[in-house]
Design a protein that fits this description.
Radius of gyration: 26 Å
CATH class: Alpha Beta
CATH topology: Rossmann fold
Oligomer: single chain
Largest sheet: 7 strands, parallel
CATH architecture: 3-Layer(aba) Sandwich
Shape: globular
Distance between the termini: 99 Å
Helix content: 40-55%
Number of domains: 1
């Protein structure tokens, strides 16, 4: 055999294994290529709960109960920020998400300086892939969230004569379809743990339409119906689904006081759950 041929055969054999001789016994040890452990996470929508950790991986201090986690989808400068502060002050890990994640920087800095374990996430709640990624990232940071708040409201006023089809569709996606995507992912994860709270932020338009606000009313009414259906489906699984009607603007209602009610909803005992909470100021006309 030519030296070059011998070397090539020896090299090819070495790549898949090698022989080990001890006395009269010779063993061939086969090598296998290692499967990479890093790379993008791909999740099938129908199997989200199977792909994510089903165990409770929440952070805990030594000799203490595990910290709970609150995920706030739509962490804007008013109610969303107040929710983050209130749940953080109550000892929760806080994950805050919004489409323009760069705008979260001041809130994250504030919470971090006050000792809150906080994570900021970019999420387009009208895109199912983005929503699934948000839940993956939240679970990797803090574990499966104990409380998920859907706090998105987006619309442009207009009448039936001048609203464009695209504007109506965009409003419905933000106010209703996004709530479905967030609620669905939250429910899949919480069902595995047998507990959790999902809170949807509604508006006056959730219960009645108003002239000039057709696209808001349709989206928010749909969100309310979604919450009602989810509450009946998930209640037996120990998942509390609640819908909050904010009958008034944040200019009149104090966001910090509203946030207090959300924390109360999460802490309610299961034998006395509130499904729909109607909040308004004392001066708000009925």
């Amino acid at each position: 055999m030519k030296p070059r041929t011998f070397v090539l055969k020896a090299w090819n054999r070495a790549k898949v294994g090698f022989s080990l001789s001890i006395g009269q016994i010779t063993a061939f040890i086969k090598l296998r290529k290692k499967t990479p452990t890093s790379g993008p996470v791909r999740i099938c929508p129908q199997r989200l709960s199977r792909e994510l950790p089903a165990t409770d991986t929440r952070s805990a201090e030594p000799n203490s109960m595990p910290r709970q986690t609150c995920l706030i989808v739509g962490a804007g400068p008013q109610l969303g920020s107040s929710l983050a502060r209130r749940f953080g002050a109550a000892g929760f890990n806080v994950a805050v998400a919004r489409r323009q994640s760069d705008l979260l920087a001041p809130l994250i800095r504030e919470l971090g300086e006050s000792g809150v374990r906080v994570g900021g996430l970019r999420c387009d709640a009208t895109d199912h892939s983005s929503v699934r990624r948000m839940f993956v990232d939240t679970t990797e940071m803090f574990g499966v969230p104990d409380c998920v708040v859907f706090n998105i409201e987006a619309y442009s006023p207009g009448t039936i004569l001048d609203i464009s089809p695209s504007a109506f569709e965009d409003s419905w996606k933000s106010n209703c379809y996004a709530g479905f995507l967030v609620g669905r992912c939250a429910a899949k994860l919480m069902s595995d743990l047998g507990r959790g709270t999902i809170i949807f932020t509604g508006a006056t338009a959730s219960t009645r339409g108003k002239q000039g606000y057709i696209n808001l009313a349709v989206g928010k009414a749909g969100l309310r119906a979604l919450a009602q259906s989810m509450a009946r489906e998930l209640g037996p699984s120990n998942i509390h689904v609640s819908h909050v009607v904010l009958d008034g603007g944040m200019e009149a209602m104090r966001p910090d006081d509203v946030a207090e009610n959300y924390l109360h909803l999460h802490n309610q005992p299961k034998n006395a759950w509130t499904h729909e909470l109607d909040l308004r100021t004392s001066e708000e006309p009925w």
